[in-house]
Design brief:
The chain folds into two domains: 46 residues; 184 residues, no CATH class. The protein is 34% helix and 25% strand.
């Protein structure tokens, strides 16, 4: 009963001092809002699991120059892939944009270049179609494209027959070989993927080669944590 009596007394005091009550309520509201915002950011960046199956098996590898993260040359990526012994697979990707021409209007869309096997490595089953085949990651082969689910719905009206048909990117025909599930979008602005085709000659040609073909923005590597650093050379090379 004492608690109920104290509560009634507190309510009466607040009603007698509306100015103080307004300031107190405002301070509480601002404090709650600030803590909620901070927790949301911390959870999204540090606590939330990655939106992939078995996220504890994914790591990202960078080159380092003078202790700073840096993009990797194509030759470096190919050497990592050749020497990898503790990893299930190693793939690379690079950001870019693409010019899409459709019947109603042309537009520039955000895209990624990925090595064949990258999308399968992420662990999401395709809604339609498939990932890039190894031969499609070789320079000179036919150019193909995989679409995000959102872009497929918005620009192509979720047409299930689109896989196997051709769209024009950067003035060239690209057969659509796959459509990813909605879970892959995860809030990113990427609309499509095309094959990244690294070559051992790219690193030798240096800056005369477009950055999207000879430089990898990031390298994603899945591995079993139990096998991590079994080879000192692999760990040192990968810079994990």
């Amino acid at each position: 009963m004492n608690v109920l009596r104290d509560a009634r007394y507190g309510v009466r005091m607040l009603r007698r001092n509306p100015g103080f009550t307004a300031v107190a309520v405002l301070a509480l509201a601002l404090g709650i809002a600030a803590n909620t915002a901070i927790f949301s950011v911390v959870y999204a960046t540090l606590l939330a699991p990655l939106p992939y199956p078995e996220p504890d098996q994914l790591v990202m590898v960078w080159s380092r120059i003078q202790g700073n993260r840096n993009v990797s040359a194509a030759g470096t990526y190919l050497e990592w892939k050749r020497q990898a012994t503790v990893f299930q697979d190693i793939n690379a990707w690079s950001g870019r944009s693409a010019n899409l021409a459709t019947a109603d209007r042309p537009e520039q869309v955000p895209a990624n270049l990925t090595t064949p096997g990258f999308l399968v490595m992420m662990g999401h089953p395709f809604a339609y179609g498939r990932d890039f085949r190894p031969e499609e990651g070789v320079e000179g082969r036919s150019k193909v494209v995989v679409l995000t689910n959102v872009f497929w719905r918005q620009r192509f009206n979720a047409d299930p027959t689109l896989v196997g048909r051709t769209v024009r990117l950067n003035g060239e025909p690209h057969p659509v070989v796959g459509v990813m599930p909605p879970s892959v979008q995860r809030g990113t602005a990427i609309d499509l993927w095309t094959p990244l085709r690294p070559s051992t000659q790219d690193s030798a040609r240096g800056p005369n080669v477009p950055p999207t073909t000879w430089r990898m923005a990031r390298v994603a590597v899945p591995r079993k944590w139990a096998r991590l650093c079994q080879s000192g050379r692999s760990c040192a090379t990968s810079r994990m």
